[in-house]
Amino acid sequence: MNKVVMYASVSVDGFIADEKDQPGPLFDWLLSGDVPLDESGVLKVSQTSYDYTRPYWDQLGATIAGRHVFDLTDGWDGTPPGGVDHVVVVTHRGRPDGWDPEGPFHFVDGVEAAVAEAKELAGDRTVEVAAGDVGGQVLAAGLVDEVRMDVIPVVFGSGKRYFGSVNAQHLLEDPDVAIQGNRVLHLRFPVRR
Q1: How far apart are CA 118 and CA 128, in angstroms?
Q2: 0.90 exceeded by the pTM?
Q3: Which of 7, 65, 127, 147 is placed for a possible disulfide with 118 were both Cys, Cβ 3.0 to 4.6 Å?
Q4: What is the pLDDT along the chain (193 residues), one digit of tens a residue?
Q5: Could you give the number of structural domains in the chain?
Q6: Range of the domain at 178
Q7: Cα 50 to Cα 179: distance, rounded to the nearest angstrom
């Protein structure tokens, strides 16, 4: 059975981007080491970060993201990020013109439908939900099993919040992983049920 994981790199004060949707130094840890994280050779992390991140990436079957992120990235130029097989995009506007309905991008209305679609596409692999507004909505709906954060030593002061506009308390279990890499602290919290 697959699990649903909310994930992003995040500032110490809880932001995944600044007010202009820029991540600033949040991804610097992906360039701070000497161990290639993927086949491109561009992403290089510490051995510690590799040992934590690579097995997680290898488990991913589908990613859920909002239409805002899809538009900001220009749909990742038609190739799902990080080698993921499928991306489920939560949108009220439907599929953009020109997108192949048989391709790896799936456009759905609502987070419950997105999680159901992503679970089906992922099979027994992990479903990742991008943190932010959509991730916060999935958490609020009680559909997140685990929260992963790559905490970066920077304070933004304002910007796009990791949990979006969640306005209710949600308890997490104690972290079952806390690993220090170069310029990053990897944390993993099971969601309390």
Answers
A1: 9
A2: yes
A3: 127
A4: 789 999 999 999 999 999 999 999 999 999 999 999 998 889 999 999 999 999 999 999 999 999 999 999 888 888 888 779 999 999 999 888 888 788 899 999 999 999 999 999 999 999 999 999 999 999 999 999 999 999 999 999 999 999 998 888 999 999 999 999 999 999 999 999 8
A5: 1
A6: 4-190
A7: 11
